[in-house]
């Protein structure tokens, strides 16, 4: 597989960055992961808007325009023979001297890569989850951006792996549900959808927002839920939203079975329809 790194297409095994890159030293950067579906970058504009918001907040310079980024991905698809999978953008502030103060002359590091994975299916994949011991703090805008600082999510995923399940769900410091390691969280009760508000420390997920819009179009209310983990076992269904799969159904939390809701499959159908007919 080839990647695009700082102006050149190179084999991924030869793609290297400086040992003094601030992304490596401090997690000083951003990333975006998009669904690559039928040779199209799904929800491209929405991902680019979040990336630009992150650049503005962190005062990072994006070396390419969004149209140039798209062109590079199109060439990566052709070079690697991949039309279905995931596309990833990794941007850091680049190499700089030691210490927290960035060098204003540092050149950003930009890595573009594509990865093969199964396309979203009509029937959502099913995962088992735990409630993590990790607690998320509302960091304001940083919580809502896709920054390169994911230690709490990594530790939570390690908890899940150690307990033999697929995913971990995190709460905020007050014990309210927030998100999973790699996705946004929804649950169904009385035929109504609930999802944690951004003030609970969760990421402003692109697929989360898209699914909420699809539900609104069909008259399905989505209510901000400031509730604890006890809300999940008593629900009619629980699911996650993530760019690469659309909807992931949660069938068990901390060993307690969660019902399977027909609404979850309906929402996956709406998602697939929307990305198949996108311009």
CATH fold name of the largest domain, please? D-amino Acid Aminotransferase, Chain A, domain 2
Radius of gyration, whole Å: 19 Å
**Strand coverage percent:** 25-35%
Biggest β-sheet: count, sense, barrel?
A: 9 strands, mixed
| Rough outline | globular
Count of helical stretches: 6
**CATH C-level category of the largest domain:** Alpha Beta
CATH architecture of the largest domain: Alpha-Beta Barrel
Mean pLDDT equals 94
CATH superfamily placement of the largest domain: D-amino Acid Aminotransferase, subunit A, domain 2
**Which blocks of ≥5 consecutive residues have pLDDT under 50?**
none
Number of strand segments: 15
Provide a concise account of the structure shown:
This protein is an alpha+beta fold and 279 residues long. The protein contains 6 helices and 15 strands. Helix content is 27%, strand content 31%.
């Amino acid at each position: 597989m080839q990647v695009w790194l700082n102006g050149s297409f190179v084999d991924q095994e030869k793609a290297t960055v400086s040992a003094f890159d601030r992304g490596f030293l401090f997690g000083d950067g951003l990333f975006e992961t998009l669904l690559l579906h039928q040779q199209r970058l799904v929800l491209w504009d929405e991902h680019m808007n979040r990336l630009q918001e992150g650049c503005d907040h962190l005062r990072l310079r994006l070396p390419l325009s969004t149209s140039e980024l798209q062109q590079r991905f199109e060439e990566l698809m052709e070079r690697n023979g991949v039309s279905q999978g995931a596309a990833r953008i990794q941007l850091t502030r680049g190499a700089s001297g030691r210490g927290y103060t960035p060098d204003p002359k540092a050149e950003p590091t930009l890595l573009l890569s594509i990865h093969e994975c199964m396309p979203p299916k009509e029937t959502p994949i099913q995962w088992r989850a735990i409630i993590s011991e990790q607690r998320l703090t509302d960091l304001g805008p940083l919580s809502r951006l896709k920054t390169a600082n994911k230690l709490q999510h990594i530790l939570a995923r390690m908890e899940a792996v150690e307990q033999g399940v697929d995913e971990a769900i995190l709460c905020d410091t007050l014990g309210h549900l927030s998100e999973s390691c790699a996705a946004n969280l929804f649950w169904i009760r009385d035929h109504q959808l609930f999802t944690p508000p951004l003030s609970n420390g969760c990421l402003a997920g692109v697929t989360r927002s898209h699914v909420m819009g699809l539900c609104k179009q069909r008259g399905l209310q989505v209510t901000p839920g400031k509730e604890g983990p006890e809300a999940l076992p008593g629900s009619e269904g629980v699911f996650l939203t993530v760019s690469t799969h659309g909807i992931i159904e949660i069938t068990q939390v901390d060993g307690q079975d969660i019902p399977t809701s027909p609404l979850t499959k309906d929402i996956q159908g709406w998602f697939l329809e929307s990305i198949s007919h996108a311009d």
